[in-house]
Amino acid sequence: MTITQTETELLLDKIASSQVFSGAERLQEFLRYVVVEAAEGRSAGIKGKTIALDVYGRSVSSDGDPENVVRVDARRLRRRLGDYYEAEGQDDAIRIHIDSGGYAPRFELNSVLTSSLEDEALPPEPQRIRVALAVVCGALILLGLYAWGSANWFVADDTADLKKFERQALMEKSPTSLQAVNLAEQGREMIFPLFDIQRQKLAFGMFEEAIRLDPEYFGGHAGAAQSLGTMAILSQDQSKKDLYLEQASEEVKKATSLNPTQAWTQVSSAWVAFAKGDFDRALELSRRAYALDPDDWYILDLHGLIAFSTGNFAEAQKVSDPSGSNDDNSHRSDSRNIYAVASFHLGEYQKTLKSFQEIGELGGPIGPPRLAYQAAAKHALGDMQGARNSASELMETWPDFRVDLALQGLFEDKKNADDVIRRLRDSGWEVPE
């Protein structure tokens, strides 16, 4: 499996702060180097001599055999990782292994936490999907959340200090309470990408374990509700869909009874309502979540998504505006995507194109709906050659993709897609045969 940058940092920080790796700075550096290299797609280049040079600053011309030092440390690292996963790391969502005979790590999901929920593929034909699924799937295709992005969210310095004291208080209550909170937070990190069914299974398993450890912690129930809501959206089997929604509703009730003022509780309630197709209620609840914690980017993205899909474009634009952020998450391409498409529907076409350009410069994903909106925005500005170029790129890159259906799937009210589709067709795009 592959892991995101956020997951990489979480894994390494947790391991480095453990008792097993306390005082083992060189092994920590060894582990960080090979994990980062692998996560960035350079596993093939992880060799003994590169580790000796990059980690220890020793070349093959150094006295002695620098690669022998690497081999010895690799054995020590494997033993410590084994000890770590038998103790403090037994509930980690992702485990790191460095197999004998090499130094490139491999990552595996914690099978103990993985749910037995059955894998289900998405329906191939958008027109066969019921309204709630069509809206959510279309919106996620737009944002790229099915393939890119992680659920990291903004935490200010004072919030980080607060969390430190919260953890101290939880530890005094009981170690299992702290463990439950840690598991739920890891599960929340695992929720995205939403269309990765294996991640949904893993996240749900982690929330279940958090509930087992501390049934009175609201986060386990809120996370379980959100995962179950997503499972319902993805399920083709109506009986399973109904079961997931029933269970999700029960978990929402428990989270609400334990801590109704938490933004996470409210946004999970919003997501379950969204999965049920109750868009008015979903918007009401997501607005409440945003009011409770307007600095949580996890809340912002989901609220922006729901606001956009329900046709509240000014609201979606406001909460996703990158210029209103002074933190490191201002580069997030999912927020910028919401901002770009909301701006289009407000007639602010230059903002649409500028936001898409910034996403490209930041290395963000590109998909069919984004190219469709680019073509439509250029068309609206009178740049017909640019519009034709974007439409042509769309047809060449995704020749069989029914972008018109995907665009309709973005909205509760399908008419909101009409202007984009009209301009796209006028730019030369044709429905695939």
Name the CATH superfamily assignment of the domain at 126-310: Tetratricopeptide repeat domain
Order of helices and strands: HHHHEEHHHHHHHHHHHHHHHH
Strand order of the largest sheet: 1-2
The overall pLDDT, averaged over residues, is: 81
Give the structural class: mainly alpha
Rough shape? globular
**CATH class of the domain at 126-310, anyone?**
Mainly Alpha
- The termini sit apart by 36 Å
- The residue ranges in which pLDDT falls below 50 over 5 or more consecutive positions are 114-130, 145-162, 326-331
CATH topology of the domain at 126-310: Serine Threonine Protein Phosphatase 5, Tetratricopeptide repeat
Helix count, DSSP H or I runs of 4 or more residues: 20
Task: Considering the chains and any ligands shown, give keywords for the structure.
433 residues; mainly alpha; Serine Threonine Protein Phosphatase 5, Tetratricopeptide repeat; 2 strands; 2% strand
Can you offer a commentary on this structure?
About 9% of the residues have low confidence. The chain has 20 helices and two strands. The chain has 433 residues and is mostly helical. Strands 1-2 form a two-stranded antiparallel ribbon. A hairpin with an 8-residue loop joins strand 1 and strand 2. Among the domains are: 105 residues; 185 residues, Tetratricopeptide repeat domain (Serine Threonine Protein Phosphatase 5, Tetratricopeptide repeat, Alpha Horseshoe).
